[in-house]
């Protein structure tokens, strides 16, 4: 199995504040990894470093052959290989669902409008929203918006998908519909790093769990560490989550 | 000893009004283009460029437009560069406009959430593409009412161009009054002309603002 994402001793500081204190982990192609931990433990920051939304101060990150910390890195090539979905959906409000999905296909992949549309249709069907293709984001529920955001990322055929608490803003019913899409994706062999507080999802879909604590990888293992934590910190964290 | 206000005077004033409108349009067009670059500089990734733009804005907004026009008209004259009134006035108004519009537009761009930029960049768009397709279309809506509002200030401030001998509405009124000595009448008519241009603009600006607020609800 090939390594898709590899972090080695990654250090990230915001001014004086050291947020990642030597984080290392490896994710194989096709693997689904749940990244969990208390608020402020550095989960989002770790994800953002992976696609260079943040620059790192130490260590190295390798994603599908790209050296992320290399000053000569082709950032756009890196981001073509990575899809990212945010808690706040971040759909473009002035564009329809179709336009949201087609924008990068046209601007980044240089497709014609009709080609892009032919790509948009099946990915939208995949997230179960074919009939919303001409809607504007504000006409959709939160769960639907998030599924569109996932479709928008998928349309670019990334090799790795990053999810940052994508269901945290949703009520339980809508959470379910988004998680189902993600579980489908996981079964389809997508490489995924999922920051989540949904322990149910982690147990069902994750091959591996990484528990971060105070800017470090504290404990890692199969989904069974959730029911059988080794460190007192994870034990306490799990107790809080229930 | 007072002459009568005649149709000729009215035509003279209307001609002045025409030049006021021309000067405003010129300043708005050129100042708008320059202002766009000021806005780009203000949101640049390069700190030095942001600084330069900020200093430019502070100097322009921190000094009277009248003085800027004097500098352009008389100051350059000292160096043997003769500046025709239209150029001095146009250039002065353009600089003035660019700094204000640049700042209004930067505010509008800044009001679009940073996450919109990030979402676009995560999809592989360049910063420029993200600006073009994602940020500017949204910022445009927000920026339009204050931009039109600024246009009202601009039209009124073209009256300052009279001091460099540019024959616009205010100057035309001065010339007529110098022979008629009927300041209430002459300047009253001039004021009415200004109002006819400015009032529809500010009404439009207000209605745009209302529409925008409704759209956001
Ligand atoms: N842009 C920034 N500037 C300064 N500090 C930041 C910035 N982004 C994050 N931090 C700090 O870094 C730390 C880790 O933040 P991060 O968002 O990675 O945590 P998290 O694990 O994702 O938490 P949560 O579960 O609340 O999302 C926090 O203390 C946060 O305040
Ligand atoms: Mg977070």
From TrEMBL, chain A:
CDD domains reported for this sequence: ABC_HisP_GlnQ
Pfam families: ABC_tran
GO cellular component terms, semicolon-separated: plasma membrane
InterPro entries the record matches: AAA+_ATPase, ABC_ATPase_HisP-typ, ABC_transporter-like_ATP-bd, ABC_transporter-like_CS, MetN_ABC_transporter-like, P-loop_NTPase
Keywords attached to this entry: Amino-acid transport, ATP-binding, Cell membrane, Membrane, Nucleotide-binding, Transport
GO MF: ABC-type amino acid transporter activity; ATP binding; ATP hydrolysis activity
Membrane topology per record: Peripheral membrane protein
Occurrences of domain ABC transporter (ranges): 5-239
Compartments, as annotated in UniProt: Cell membrane
Matches recorded under SMART domains: AAA (SM00382)
PANTHER family in alphabetical order: AMINO ACID IMPORT ATP-BINDING PROTEIN, GLUTAMATE_ASPARTATE IMPORT ATP-BINDING PROTEIN GLTL
Family affiliation: Belongs to the ABC transporter superfamily.
Protein name in the entry: Polar amino acid transport system ATP-binding protein
TrEMBL record, chain B:
Keywords: Cell membrane, Membrane, Transmembrane, Transmembrane helix, Transport
Stored PANTHER family: BLR6398 PROTEIN, MEMBRANE COMPONENT OF AMINO ACID ABC TRANSPORTER
Topology with respect to the bilayer: Multi-pass membrane protein
Entry superkingdom: Bacteria
Locations listed in the record: Cell inner membrane; Cell membrane
Family: Belongs to the binding-protein-dependent transport system permease family. HisMQ subfamily.
Protein name: Polar amino acid transport system permease protein
Phylogenetic placement of the source organism: Bacteria, Pseudomonadati, Pseudomonadota, Alphaproteobacteria, Hyphomicrobiales
Organism: Shinella fusca
A Pfam family the protein falls into: BPD_transp_1
Alphabetical list of Gene3D superfamilies matching this protein: MetI-like
Cleaved signal peptide residues: none
InterPro entries xref list: AA_ABC_transptr_permease_3TM, ArtM/GltK/GlnP/TcyL/YhdX-like, MetI-like, MetI-like_sf
Transmembrane segments: 16-41, 53-76, 180-201
GO cellular component: ATP-binding cassette (ABC) transporter complex
UniProt-recorded Gene Ontology molecular function terms: transmembrane transporter activity
Single GO biological process annotation from the record: amino acid transport
Residue stretches making up the ABC transmembrane type-1 domain: 17-205
């Amino acid at each position: 199995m090939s390594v898709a994402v590899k972090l080695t001793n990654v250090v990230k500081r915001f001014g004086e504040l050291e947020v990642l204190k030597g984080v290392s982990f490896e994710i194989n192609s096709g693997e689904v990894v749940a990244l969990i931990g208390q608020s402020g433990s550095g989960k989002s920051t770790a994800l953002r470093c992976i696609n260079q939304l943040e620059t790192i101060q130490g260590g190295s990150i390798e994603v599908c052959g790209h050296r992320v910390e290399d000053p000569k890195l082709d950032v756009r090539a890196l981001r073509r290989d990575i899809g990212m979905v945010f808690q706040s959906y971040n759909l473009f409000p002035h564009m329809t669902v179709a336009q949201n999905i087609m924008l990068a296909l046209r601007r980044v992949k240089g497709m014609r409008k009709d080609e892009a549309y032919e790509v948009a249709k099946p990915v939208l069907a995949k997230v179960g929203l074919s009939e919303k293709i001409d809607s504007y984001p504000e006409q959709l529920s939160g769960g639907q918006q998030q599924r569109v955001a996932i479709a928008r990322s998928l349309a670019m055929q990334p090799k790795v998908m990053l999810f940052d608490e994508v269901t945290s803003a949703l009520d339980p019913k809508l959470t379910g519909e988004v998680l189902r899409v993600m579980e489908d994706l996981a079964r389809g062999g997508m490489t995924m790093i999922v920051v989540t507080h949904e322990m149910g999802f982690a147990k069902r879909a994750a091959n591996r769990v990484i528990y971060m604590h105070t800017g470090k990888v504290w404990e890692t293992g199969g989904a069974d560490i959730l029911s059988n934590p080794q460190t007192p910190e994870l034990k306490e964290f799990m107790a809080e989550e229930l | 000893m007072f002459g009568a206000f005649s149709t000729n005077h009215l035509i003279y004033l209307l001609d002045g009004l025409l030049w006021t409108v021309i000067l405003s349009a010129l300043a708005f067009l050129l100042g708008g283009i320059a202002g766009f670059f000021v806005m780009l500089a203000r949101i640049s990734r390069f700190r030095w460029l942001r600084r330069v733009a900020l200093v430019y804005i502070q100097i322009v907004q921190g000094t009277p437009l009248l003085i800027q026009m004097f500098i352009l008209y008389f100051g350059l004259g000292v160096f043997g560069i003769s500046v025709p009134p239209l150029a001095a006035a146009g250039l002065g108004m353009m600089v003035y406009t660019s700094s204000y519009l640049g700042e209004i537009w930067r505010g509008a761009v800044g009001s679009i959430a940073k996450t919109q930029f990030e979402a676009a960049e995560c999809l592989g768009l360049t910063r420029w593409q993200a600006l073009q397709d994602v940020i500017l279309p949204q910022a445009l809506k927000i920026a339009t009412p204050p931009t039109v509002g600024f246009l009202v200030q601009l039209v009124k401030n073209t009256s300052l161009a009279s001091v460099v001998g540019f024959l616009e509405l205010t100057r035309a009124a001065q010339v007529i009054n110098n022979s008629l000595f009927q300041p209430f009448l002459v300047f009253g008519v001039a004021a009415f002309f200004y109002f006819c241009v400015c009032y529809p603009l500010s009404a439009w600006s207000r209605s745009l603002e209302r529409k925008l607020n409704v759209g956001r609800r």
